[in-house]
Structures are given as C-alpha cells and as structure tokens.
Amino acid sequence: MKVTTIIHPRYVETDQMGVIHHSIYPIWYEVGRVQFCDVMGYPFSKIEKDLSLAVLKVTSVYKAPARFGDQLVLTTQIKSYSKVKIEFEYEIINQEGLIINYGTTEHCWLNNNFKPVNIAKINPTLYNLITKATLE
Amino acid sequence: MKVTTIIHPRYVETDQMGVIHHSIYPIWYEVGRVQFCDVMGYPFSKIEKDLSLAVLKVTSVYKAPARFGDQLVLTTQIKSYSKVKIEFEYEIINQEGLIINYGTTEHCWLNNNFKPVNIAKINPTLYNLITKATLE
Amino acid sequence: MKVTTIIHPRYVETDQMGVIHHSIYPIWYEVGRVQFCDVMGYPFSKIEKDLSLAVLKVTSVYKAPARFGDQLVLTTQIKSYSKVKIEFEYEIINQEGLIINYGTTEHCWLNNNFKPVNIAKINPTLYNLITKATLE
Amino acid sequence: MKVTTIIHPRYVETDQMGVIHHSIYPIWYEVGRVQFCDVMGYPFSKIEKDLSLAVLKVTSVYKAPARFGDQLVLTTQIKSYSKVKIEFEYEIINQEGLIINYGTTEHCWLNNNFKPVNIAKINPTLYNLITKATLE
C-alpha cells in the first residue's frame, strides 16, 4: 500500500538560501507516516494509547530543492517490518514530476515504560494490519 | 531581577526574506523564561513535577530584523504576578545596541489535571521566590 | 471576506505537556494569511516579486489547548488597512466548536531594499484587491 | 579537528512522548557545523558571500532519548571531503556520558546560481582550511 500526501511548503519552512530547509523533510515524512496509519485503519491516537513508535534512524537524500509555492506529493510505504521493528520509505515529487527527495525512517515499538515490545504478541490486530498494508 | 540570555540565531531560523522568521521570537522568550526560573532558584524541571505554566497570551513587537550571524541579548523579567497568574516581559537587543524586539507572555498555573491553581497556597516556596524576583 | 483553512496539528508541534506548543499558532496564522492572499487573487509568490509583507506585531490569545488528532478551522480576515500597513485577525475553532485561540498580526509593506512603501501608489491593483477583500 | 558544542534542549523541542523530537537533531548538527566553520576560520557569513553549502544527504541514528533539562555535548568533525563535496560527522553525548545519537551530513558546494563548483579552484583558501581541519 502506498499512501500519498499533498504537501504545501510553509513560508516559515524556507531559509535564507531561498529554499525549504533540509530539516523540514523528516517532519513531512512524519506527516506521511501519520496519514499512512490513518489509511491503514490504526491511527496514531490509537497507537499511542499503549504504545510508542520510537525513531531509530532517519535517512534523507536531497536531489533538488523545494520552494515556497511548490505543490509536492509525498508517497509513504512500508519498506520492511518484523515483530519488533518497522521501516517506512518516502518519496517526494514536485509539480514538474521531479523526484526531489527520498528517505527512510526506522522505528521500534515501545510500551508506555519505553521498553521494546513484540507487537505480534501484544497487539496482533495492529501486526496484521501492517502485514496487510505491506503486501497490498 | 533581570536575567539576560545570549541568543545566536540559528540558520534554520532564517526565512527566504533573509531574516529571522517572526515565529522564532516566542521560542527565544521561552528560552529566556526557562533561564529566569533557573536563576530564580526554581527550574522548570522542578515546576513540572506538579505544575504547568500554561501560556494565556503572547505579544511580540518587531522593530528591526534579526539576522543569522547576529549576537542578540535577550532580557527577561517579571512584569506582574498574582496568586494564579504571572506575566513576563522581554527585550531583545542586537550587537549594535538596537532594541529589535520586545514582548510579553501571560501565564496561569495549572495542576497536573490542567486545572488552575493558587500557587500561594499550593506552593508558597515558589510564590515567595516569584515575589522576591519581582522586587529585586 | 473571511477565508477558512483546515489545520491538522502535526505530531512535531506537540510538546511534553501533551498539547500543541504556543509558538506554533503564529505559524498557522501565516498559513491562513498565505491562503487569504491566494483567495484574494494576489498570491505571496506575486507579492514577493517586488514587495515584502514584514511583520510589525503579533498577538495571540490561548483559550483552550489544541492537541494532535484535532481538526481545527482557522478563519483569517483583514482587520484594518491603510496605504502602508495591513492588520489581519485570526480565530481558531476546534472540532467541538470551541474557540481555542484568536490573534492578530500587523504588517507593513516594504520594497526589496526593505524600505516602507505606499502600495496605493506603487501597486494600486493590490491595494484595490485589499479594499475589496475588506469590504466583502 | 573536532569541535564541541554544548546543547541545551529547548522546551519547544520536546514532543508529547516527553522526549526531544527526532527532527531536531539535524538542526543541532547544523549548529555544530556552523561552529565548526567558525573555529576553522571561515564562518558561514563569509562562505555565503559567494557560495552555498547545499545538503545532499542526512543520516541520523538514535540510541537513547534526549530530554528537556539535559546538557548535551555535540562533537562535529569532517568525515571526508573532495574538491566538490564535504561530509561531516556528528556525535551527541548526554550528561551521563552516553552516546545518544550520531549521524552524518553530505554537502556539495554551489555558486550563487546554484551550480556545483570546484572550491579548490574557486576558493583555494577555503579548500586549504578544510584540508588542514581534516588532518588536525
């Protein structure tokens, strides 16, 4: 399953180089990830009742700048998953069809005491939705 | 009591106008407010054990731009206080001695259930420190 | 003319109090202001060809917290204007119909040398659109 | 050459998980990078007179959370460089001596028309400082 999110860069996200600052892209990835979980049928508000999706690693590759006034399409999908981890991948395309950025985020599942958990055991419903969203 | 904080604007805080974005100043006010509480002898980490200092109002007046590379001096002091509220005022001066911005933040004290509380009753130590910091 | 903008608070915009940080609201105001100019028929990208809309003052009043997962409606309108200045006002309502925040931003028009200009003279088209958008 | 920067996490940088949001670390890397260039003898303000240091890639690995109230030490150094590119690496240690995060940023040199340039040709002084800073 691929989930697409329209991104309108905000003025505040520009920097004095006249482009969107590189630190903004992981924020957009998060917006895409949140929407992915909504579409998957298990929104963040539900996840955060007894779990956290902690970030282990972020990578982001910048091919061309984004600018204020652009309309971007962010695509989010699951790259891989296990009972304890999940990795998302992202791609951002601008209004000219150019891939301007892509990246990944790796996460582990934590309980409310910040301990890693096996969600296949603790939350099989969520685990099955992830499996389904990855295969589709 | 006036507490001064040196601010080095961050590159990410610039926008495509080539100046520091106006939304950053309330963040700097918060940095000043946190340092004020440290100097007053009651750091935020201690406040947040059983209280929150919720924001009721922010005002910020912009007289001249700040730029990346500037070295700014932020001055923080208490403007007024009561048993349930506190108001801070701020002034930012650049390396040329120019006042570039000033503003205020109004707050009320909340307990952990987000209910307003009388800190003169609930935490007289903190209330006395505020009284002292205002008179000094 | 009133322009409404749907705001979905971002996860990154929360703080450890569990609510949206107060510094985010001026950013949302800007998103509303940008959309206002789009609807008015004079987008920011066109404004910024030879002008800047510098911020002189921001006020923001917080009545109730916003949270991640909320769906907010931001209303933006012109409060007052002259040949050299413009003031916008904003109101944010949550999904329960509660006004959680309102505020204002005051601006002046600058040319590319950061000098104040009379837009009724320099750009009568823009000035007329502002007049129209205020009366409607 | 290794340059160390003290980081006091800001309240605004926390999220509702009670920790510093993962998108903040690339901002801290930039603070370290700016200080590195200052120490190297070629500050960003000088670089940006005729060059830009565009970001090509960011990676960030999160080993343990940072919290408001922590005092962090960020170490910045050059990992590799050529006539057209430069890669920095970063490490963040908390007050308990724990490495909580490390990462890299890759950059290329652009002129004011956003075209890649060979700085060994265009700016040998800067290139020599980079060489020296890498060897030291």
What would you note in describing this structure?
4 copies of one chain form a homotetramer. Chain A is an alpha+beta fold. The first copy, chain A, is 26% helix and 36% strand. Chain A has one domain: Hotdog Thioesterase (Thiol Ester Dehydrase, Chain A, Roll). Chain A has a 5-stranded antiparallel sheet with strand order 1-3-4-5-2. The radius of gyration of chain A is 16 Å and the shape is elongated. The termini of chain A are close together. The model of chain A has no long low-confidence stretch (mean pLDDT 97). Strand 2 (52-62) of chain B pairs antiparallel with strand 2 (52-62) of chain C.
Return the string of H and E elements of chain A.
EHHEEEEHH
What fraction strand of chain A? 35-45%
Distance between the termini of chain A: 5 Å
How would you sum up the major sheet of chain A? 5 strands, antiparallel
Q: Most extensive chain contact?
A: A-D, 21 and 21 residues
Biggest sheet strand line-up of chain A: 1-3-4-5-2
Q: What structural class do the secondary elements of chain A suggest?
A: alpha+beta
Radius of gyration of chain A: 16 Å
| CATH superfamily annotation of chain A | Hotdog Thioesterase
The CATH topology of chain A, please? Thiol Ester Dehydrase, Chain A
CATH architecture of chain A: Roll
Percent in helix of chain A = 25-40%
Q: What's the tally of helices of chain A? A: 4
Q: List segments of chain A where confidence is low: pLDDT < 50 over at least 5 consecutive residues.
A: none
Shape of chain A: elongated
